[in-house]
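Researcher: For the record, we're logging two predictions in this thread. I'll number them. Prediction 1 follows.
Model: Prediction 1, sequence and structure:
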Amino acid sequence: MIAPPNTRRLTLTRPLDLRLTLAPTRYGKGDPSCLLRSDECFRATRTPMGPATVHLVVRDGGLEAEAWGPGADWALDQLPLLVGEHDDLEGFGPRTGVVAELVRRHPGLRIGASHRVMEALVPAVCAHQVSGFEGKRAHRQVMQAYGEPAPGPSGIELTVPPDPRVLASTSHHDLHPLGLERARADVIRRAAARSVTVEAVVDQSPDEAEHRLRSIAGVGAWTAAVVRQVALGDADAVPMGDERSKHLVAWAFLGEPRGTDAQMLELLEPYRGHRGRVLRLLRAERPAPHRAGDEHRSA
């Protein structure tokens, strides 16, 4: 018999688009840890207290939440951070142009913080130097091989992300059949072996967190930026080396189908402090034509 869930209701201070806000925490439609719809989400996570499954629904100006598992209370306590209730919009108020129009179209897009660093880092490493499809497939296979069934109601079959101790104990030979060559496998294993230190970056400034993350061999600017945005809620994080991002910026601001990292930084400079937010808004619209290879990422 399944124990009844812990519950919580959060009164929202401004609009919340649950799908757009939580999209970075889901790694493709096949992510076994997350079911995400326009106003509802089931999400499995590994908290400091243990596994948890959270069910979120936006209803009547609030966010209603249920949670199961040993980590239920911790997960519910983190809800304001996860859904961006503390997302600081100071200094961000475009009145005209493409960004202002995107804000008008997507008023509920927020920058949330999961505060689960390894859960952001592992899929980011899976995406190193490969297409988006290959990265998501590798992440899904790692989850299926080393995750565990999530607590929660029957009929909702989710997987809790792997315990870092389990990942640290693997060899690159174990991970190779899951779609990870030695380079990516070793980065995951190194990070997992230092998971206590890695998770502690949530209490550091963005610059300190980036320094700590990049001290792990194989973690570069792109991976650190992804983790900063997803786990820390850093609205200014820009993923350098992301093919799709620089082309989105070039298309939105200049009408050009291809761009460069340097050009992207120049065009986003007026929005410093919120450059990652602008990228999230652009991704919500997907204005640029997709081309093969556009999802290729560096480390």
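Researcher: Logged. Prediction 2.
Model: Prediction 2, sequence and structure:
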Amino acid sequence: MDSLAALVTSMRLRGSVDLLCRFAGMWSVDEEAREPGTVRYHMVLEGRAHLESGRTHIDLAGGDLVLFPHGAAHTLRSSEGRTAVAYPVTRQAQGELTRVDSLTEQHDYDMLCGSFELGQSHSLLLQSLPEVVHVSTQGRDDCAWLLALMRLMRHESAQPLAGAPAVIDDLSRAMFTIVLRILMEQGAFTHGLLALLTDARMAPAIAAVIDTPAEAWTLERMAERSRMSRASFARHFAELSEMTPLDLVTSLRMEQAARLLRDTRRSIELIGESCGYATHSAFGRAFKRHYGMSPAAWRRAGDEPNPS
């Protein structure tokens, strides 16, 4: 399994769609800020629109996908309008979502809106992403599969089909992975985990740590994996990340531990051992430094774990 696949698989990412918007004329939609770990997205299937999020302004067209990895508040509006104005709409439950239509017979804008749920135990990956991710599929052979997925998600979500929620969940995971792959191939990451993973010199060591974070990693071992001297490895690592190599190891261990605490009924001691900690107390101290609470408190605060 390659490193990107390992990261996405470990996320236990869940996806959902909630709005199908079909508008005409002048319109606008305001989205409030979301909690960390919820990545809101909009896929434009037809028509044109304008996006505003802080200082970011983007013109959108059919085939565009826009994500908000840090839950930023934003406004989407018709390309013709220049102010956010509320226009009359109708709302109707349809399949797995709510259809929002402007009060016109014809619609020239079609947009599907949803969320990726990653939870708070994936901050390391999300830190690599900008406030707004915009991918345009128009005229791009490398985005053909992404556009096909977008259309399939609309089909599955807009009708009461058997098994649609499960299909949408799987399609969401595939879509998120493809977006990351496209950005990595474009060299869009300049800092953070994904920048390290796409750097030819750093990738061997980073991939190894992602694959086995519980190993007894040292700076020397990581440098050996990348066939670099200890000093060169540390210097190049610092150019791509604010954390140290050993901080990365700890963060990956903690994110793995948080997922196991949430998703399984394993004992805290066994989880600590599986994440590279020889004693219960060492694991507890490391976890509390990272998340500000004990492993037991994290488990109580999370969702009911699944049997394992």
